[in-house]
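Write out the 3D structure for:
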Amino acid sequence: MLISNRLGYHREVPDTRDAKCREKSYPSDLPFASVIICFYNEALSALLRTVHSVLDRTPAHLLHEIILVDDNSELGENLLEMFWSELTLLRKVLVFLDSHCEVNEMWLCTLLFCGQIWMCGGRLLIIPCSRVGHIFRKRRPYGSPGGQDTMAHNSLRLAHVWMDEYKEQYFALRPELRTRNYGNITDRVELRKRLNCRSFKWYLDNIYPEMQVSGPNAKAPQPVFINRAQKRPKIIRRGRLYHLQTNKCLVAQGHPSQKGGLVVVRECDYNDQNQVWVYNEDHELVLNNLLCLDVSETRSSDPPRLMKCHGSGGSQQWTFGKNNRLYQVSVGQCMKVADPLSHKGYVAMAICDGSLPQQWHFES
């Protein structure tokens, strides 16, 4: 995150297209496009760099507008209002981009021949002359309602709507999902009928014969890799974060599963698992195996909070330094108890000075 903030909103990127792509010419009457960028808890610098890369490397006559969609971010503010004055929208084809991308030269001209999806009469094409750089996270930064496996839930709905009798192949690989509830799919099934979409067998026979599936009841081959669960970083220490001056422990102000909730110091209860922190190889501090200790990288005066672990370091990267200090790498500050004499137990970030309010001990 610190590196991203230092890069700025505009930067030159190398033209990674094949040399033959640079020789191509495009019709002058291409349709114009609306570029839609959805974001969730995105770093402001990464989001702005995505927007400005579109503005900088898209022919003005092809760009109708840029639409930013905040997908219920949990940052406690409206990011669009923060930087609306930064943008000049250039007021159709819809082009969707992730919120941490940078487009390359002539990326849009090449795309303005793509269609929809195969089974419903469209086409999904690989366009090698259209290059868009993307930042990949190590783990998903998104929450899961009620703790459910949303990836399994969505793939299960897809199988029931689109795979016809071949969904048995899917269940052969994921038998534990056969009886799982997948919600109401009536509107999706009706949409498929209304669009006169072809069968999944047609797709396998005509579009993806390389799948080599002999029939809906044939035994599914074991894939090389199945992403059954996210790999968790190795745990280095487990215990309580003990504040030496107050003799209290760092805990959630509310419930430890409350995203965006504050942390405070309270009397230590060694029978309470909600006071147990994990420190892992990614330098994350995770409370009760639920949420990570996080700080705002754009509002240094905000206190630390509990947020979904995103696995990207930055705002969730902590180290234990000299003088028992708990150092936050991204903002370059140490955590302290704001008022050691107050019963409220609020904590805050401050310039590291080795003072008593900044001294912590990880009790294993």
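Residues 83 and 168 are 49 Å apart (CA to CA).
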